[in-house]
Specification:
Largest sheet: 4 strands, antiparallel
Strand content: over 45%
Shape: globular
Radius of gyration: 18 Å
Number of helices: 3
Amino acid sequence: MANPKLFTHPCIHRYEGNPVMTCKDVPYPSTLVFNAGVIRYQGRYAMTFRNDYEHISQAKFAGTNIGLAFSDDGIHWKVEPQPVFALQDKEIVRAYDPRLTDVEGQIYMTFAVDTRHGVCGGIAKTDDLHHYEMVSLSVPDNRNMVLFPERVNGMYMRLERPMPVYSRGRDQFDIWISESPDLVHWGNPHLLLAVEDFPFANDKIGPGAPPLRTDAGWLIFTHTVDIDPTRGKNGWEDRWIKRYCIAVALLDLNEPWKVLGYSKVPLLAPETDYETTIGFRTNVVFPTAALRMDDNIIRIYYGAADTVIAFAEAREEDLIQLCLKGE
């Protein structure tokens, strides 16, 4: 049975000039530009983004690296002349999907790492966004890690998405939360949100943007995935049957493993041409950064169709109420 059509919640509005970055903005080989981390940095906006280049066929590309761009307004971006981050050796295949978090004055980048023995989550720190020092790498299979922007009860916190195919029997991936005294040794895990909690997901969910502190609690933006086998070919591959939406949840400030509420409908569903028909993997919106703008407007940057970068905005209070009312 085909899955029902999903709609974007009326509390959020896409920027009319989307997308705000494409491969045409990159001054080195680039085919797909998406899944970007964004922070404020020295009076400007800074972005690290995933760059896949030289498409070969289907889902194969010559390589992946992470680029860096700056902006005065968070809309118009200038990409640096060269990529700033790439990992590759006999074991590591690539690093991708960066998220940026300023944790009490120190900038960290989390990212996924494909190795020849599984997918890992990496954490690196930087003082200038051009040079990075590895902090830790998880064991397989774990990814979509995002850090909280401050310690809670003296501990660093992160959201993550383990990939337990064996024990769950199929793609049934959930969001967990864990803590660390030093960003290296992680433990005390809690299941935070499960895929079955969201009526519009039947495959997996995962962390998106790093958490955003509000007076009501930590706002987190997640991706949710549903599979519909009738979708068939969508994008460049012979078969792409997934749909990615964005959801929002609210966590307790002092005990963030406690969920205060979450949206029972999508916050953002793929609807526009650059999300549904034009691109590598269509029907995809994937949140990777959330910033508080003027007048308590929250700007959410997201990858669209695994091809370009866009953003949408909503009032902070509306997002909180969406979580608490469970609409």
